[in-house]
Amino acid sequence: MVDHAEQLLLDLGFHQVRVRIHDKIARIEVMPDEFEKLLRSRGTL
Predict the structure, then answer these.
(1) Dihedral over Cα of 39, 21, 12, 44: its sign
(2) How many CB atoms lie within 10 A of CB 33?
(3) Which residues, including other chains, have CB under 8 Å from residue 45's CB and lie 6 or more apart?
């Protein structure tokens, strides 16, 4: 599941990503300069 989520983010154009699963919550880490892009991508994730 983590690999799939990370690949999805890379396919969306993010350059460095990390996804971690904690129970029912996924923590997504991206570079600080791409954080706003992540927020704008919420509808496509």
Answers:
(1) negative
(2) 8
(3) 8
Q: Which residue bears the tokens 């890379």?
A: 10
Token match 């923590």: residue? 27
pTM > 0.85: no
Position 10, amino acid: L
What does the block give as tokens for 26? 């996924």
Per-residue pLDDT of 5-34, as tens digits, reads 999 999 999 999 999 999 999 999 999 999
3-state secondary structure of 25: strand
CA distance 17 to 5: 9
